Amino acid sequence: MLITIKDFTFEPARPAVAPGTPITVVNKDPETHTLTATGGKAFDTGKVASGQTVTFTAPDKAGSYPFICTFHPYMKGTLTVR
Fold first, then answer.
1. Alpha-carbon separation of residue 74 from 18, 33, 71 (angstroms)
2. What does the alpha-carbon distance between residue 38 and residue 47 come to, in Å, rounded to a whole number?
3. pTM of the predicted model as reported, rounded to 2 decimal places
4. Domain that holds residue 10
5. Number of domains the chain contains
């Protein structure tokens, strides 16, 4: 699964994956971003600099996991694990 950060948005903003799926995040913006689960700390990419790619693993438990960029909290999405 690939999530692209571009123009201060996550694309796709509502990805759906199987438990334990590797998720790669690529930042195509000039600013640093994060992709961080809200509540529960299920996942957090840490700082993803411009042009950088980071991979994390989806949670093992099915459910909906809202996420934001901690630097730009208006950037939102939801990861669905099923």
1. 26, 12, 9
2. 16
3. 0.95
4. 2-81
5. 1
**Residue 4's beta-bridge partner residues?**
11, 26
Residue pLDDT, tens place only, 19-69 = 999 999 999 999 999 999 998 789 999 999 999 999 999 999 999 999 999
Q: Which contacts (CB < 8 Å, 24+ apart) does range 21-26 have?
A: 21/57, 21/58, 21/81, 22/55, 22/56, 22/57, 22/58, 23/55, 23/56, 23/57, 23/58, 23/79, 24/53, 24/54, 24/55, 25/53, 25/54, 25/55, 25/56, 26/2, 26/52, 26/53
Residue 69 sits in a domain whose CATH number is 2.60.40.420
